[in-house]
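Async update (no meeting this week)

Hi team, since we skipped the sync, here's where things stand on the single-chain job. The sequence we agreed to prioritize is pasted below, unchanged from the tracker. I ran it this morning and attached the output directly underneath so nobody has to dig for it. Comments welcome in thread, and please keep replies under the output.
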Amino acid sequence: MDFIHMSQIMTEAANSYLSPDRRVQRDFFVADLLDAAPKGDMASMEHPLFALRAGDKRVRVYERPGVTVTIKPGYDGCATIHDKDLWIYCISQLVEAKNRGREITRTVQFTAHDFLRSTNRDTSGRAYIRMGEMLQRLTGTRIETNIETDDKRERGFFGLIDAAKVIERDRDDRMVAVEVTLPDWLFRSVNAMQVLTLSPDYFRLRKPLDRRIYELARKHCGRQEKWTIGLSTLHEKSGSADKRFRFRAAIKELVEADALPDYRMLFDAEADTLTFRTRTERKVRKGTKK
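Output:
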């Protein structure tokens, strides 16, 4: 009896003791890692894709050397930086799964409750309604850009999420399970691990501008001890629609409050600059003096 024939007999014998393999290759990723650390993609931390005001229906254009970003609102206005929590949640899940050797896709399934808890939101009935509104803004907001991700630069047109649907509801018609498809542009960035870990306290920041300032500091400080930027440049990079004097006042207030996670801020009125210093670096230096 030849080897091939024997192998077929053994396979048939084994199959007689086993049920059929009913597992189907999924084309989506299930978000089930509750301890995933918050992650943000570096491209959106650098460029102001998300509005700082609810109901913003302006067409916004942001230009830096070699990069142009045009943000066009949907019927419900532009997605806000608080809506960006969905991006952060999905990115965090994908990165954690990738680190554990699991296969990931740009379509992510998750429970609404897990998302709300992970992003420091309440879980009231109103929270589920707000989540539905958030999904509408994210799918409605359109981006045109040539931002490079994973060493690939192309002029692209996309929604902040390509698609979203509720796949399960409870008896009160509240969403239980949700499925979103991230734009390929963002998924490339995640797959290439062009991401940075955020402080869990990021989700505790109430003001949109404070969140935006934090992610700019996180992006540009990186592993540096400090980062200094002119206030006019910071104003532009923040995406704030406020007049310069109002923006300056808000920054001074944030400096005085010293409430930014991970970083301390120093405003130099004479030079009109802002310097960010890592809190951990300062603690280490204090320790070495003792």
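Quick observations from my side:
Residues 19-25, 282-290 have pLDDT under 50 and may be disordered.
The chain is about 40% helix and 20% strand.
Reply here if anything looks off.
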